[in-house]
Write a structure and sequence with these properties.
By secondary structure, this protein is an alpha+beta fold. It has two helices and five strands. It has helices spanning about 5-10, 95-110; strands at about 20-30, 35-45, 50-60, 70-80, 90-95. Strands 1-2-3-4-5 form a five-stranded antiparallel beta sheet.
Length: about 110
């Protein structure tokens, strides 16, 4: 269990070997200089094997015609007694994240 995808799958409630034992979330909102509402969410996940992962989402609430609006999604290894690769993953929208998760599933199945 030294791949970040193992833990991300568990965060997304996909079957796998990683077991979440606890999670803690923080939410807050703010307005930027232009008055746009920006929402932040940070959730920390503790796993049975001692690994801790921080999952952050930042999203602007603008009316957008984009199919997949821009947001920032990140996963970061906070604590681990073994090397996990990659130690951090960043996405610029939910579609990019979904595509990466799908491709990782295909790669793991081979």
């Amino acid at each position: 269990m030294n791949q970040l995808i193992t833990y991300i799958n568990a965060i997304h409630r996909q079957p796998g070997p990683a077991t979440i034992t606890r999670q803690q979330s923080e939410h807050y909102s703010e307005h930027d200089e232009s008055g746009t509402l920006i929402q932040h969410q940070q959730t920390t996940y503790w796993f049975a094997n001692g690994v801790v992962i921080c999952h952050q989402i930042e999203q602007d609430h603008l009316s957008s015609e984009q199919l997949c609006a821009e947001c920032w999604i990140s996963y970061r290894v906070v604590t681990s007694h073994m090397p996990i690769t990659p130690p951090r993953k960043l996405f610029h929208n939910a579609c990019q994240e979904a595509f990466w998760l799908k491709m990782q599933g295909i790669m793991l199945a081979k």
